[in-house]
Amino acid sequence: MSPKDLSARMQQVATRARPGRPGVDEPPVSPAAEDVSPAVGEPRTPGAGRTHRVTVDLDDGAYALLRRTALDWFVPGSAVLRALIAEMADDPDLAGRVRSRSQQR
After folding, report:
1. 34 contacts 76 by C-beta, under 8 angstroms
2. How many Cα neighbours within 13 Å face the side chain of 12?
3. pTM: predicted TM-score of the whole model, two decimal places
4. Residue 33 and residue 36: Cα distance in Å, rounded?
5. Cβ(58)–Cβ(65) below 8 Å
6. Biggest CA pair distance of the chain
7. Pairwise CA distance, residues 20 & 8, whole Å
8. Where are the alpha helices (DSSP H) in 1-91?
9. What is the pLDDT of residues 28-48, one digit of tens each?
């Protein structure tokens, strides 16, 4: 992928534009708008509500993989990481592999 193509693809992702569908773009959605806390007195859904910001230092290879994956899937990198965490919560085998790898570093 040329630098010009990569730049165009990043612009499409940033504006949520879909290739081949000019003029049908969805407006960007702020992450805060997706994680709205329930009104006072409403029951909280497990996993909903308050969010936490996490900073992770990635080497060049891991960062490139995350960005390339996010671009290919037309999602933010944070959505890829959230999905990975959800998969780990649902899959004990994956969680075990992640635990083993995390203890090696």
Report:
1. no
2. 19
3. 0.53
4. 6
5. no
6. 53
7. 13
8. 3-14, 31-34, 60-73, 77-90
9. 444 444 444 455 555 555 566
